[in-house]
Write a sequence for this structure.
């Protein structure tokens, strides 16, 4: 069997030059109350919705199981189970160096926070870093979306 | 929208007369590490697998969101996320008084425990109780499957 895993790098963002030509989606997501061992995320992106189970990051990779769910179910789960653990953000998608990058612009309590992410095919893969990247935060647990969902302000450097 | 809810009554079982004519399935299920607010269950029944989110029981009803998942995903989630929170049982299905009843015969640490369940269409619905029912445990939190999954022996009366 192919084990579904997520391998990604995550960076702060400087400047605005990444915005040019990027596509944007509105994301609303929340987390069920789990322990640190895994996260259970409900995400609405446009008119589509997903339930996603993620394990802890181990040596740069993370098990990820994602399933589409009816939009009405997702809204109900967010309302019933995710109060106080929600994130709203705009996701900008763009290509750089042959890879898909996303820049998430957070809203609400985290307004002003910009996080860039790129998914890799394997741990340690070389990737062409765009010039608008700031500090890498891949291994900083404060920038996990599940942690940000409970934060009252962007993490301070 | 129709809100998916589960309304059920749960009983201990006396005697063996319920076994006659019942169909049996092997169930293996585990729980992701969540708080008491909700449960996230991974279940394998025969060759099928499901991911199920349930809320707390409020006035006899419980929100329930269930999705089929690939068998290999379920096996992997049970292995990665549910150690120490697993249940194996045989589920006997039978009809009584025009309704579907199940009797779960637990294995492993809970061997000997038998729990009968019936699903209702609405809270307070009249239901014909079969003669092999013992004490009702609908509101006893020790008999929640998510609690039993962490128990080292059947609850004592």
């Amino acid at each position: 069997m192919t084990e579904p895993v997520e391998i990604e790098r995550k960076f702060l963002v400087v400047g605005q030059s990444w915005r040019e030509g990027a596509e944007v989606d509105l994301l609303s997501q929340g987390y069920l109350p789990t322990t640190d061992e895994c996260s259970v995320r409900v995400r609405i992106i446009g008119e589509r919705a997903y339930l996603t189970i993620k394990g802890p990051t181990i040596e740069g990779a993370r098990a990820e199981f994602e399933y589409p769910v009816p939009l009405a179910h997702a809204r109900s789960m967010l309302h019933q189970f995710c109060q106080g653990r929600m994130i709203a953000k705009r996701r900008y998608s763009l290509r750089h160096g042959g890879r898909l990058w996303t820049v998430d612009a957070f809203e609400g309590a985290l307004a002003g926070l910009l996080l860039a992410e790129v998914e890799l095919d394997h741990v340690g893969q070389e990737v062409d870093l765009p010039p608008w990247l700031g500090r890498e935060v891949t291994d900083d647990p404060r920038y996990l979306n599940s942690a940000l969902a409970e934060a009252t302000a962007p993490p301070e450097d």
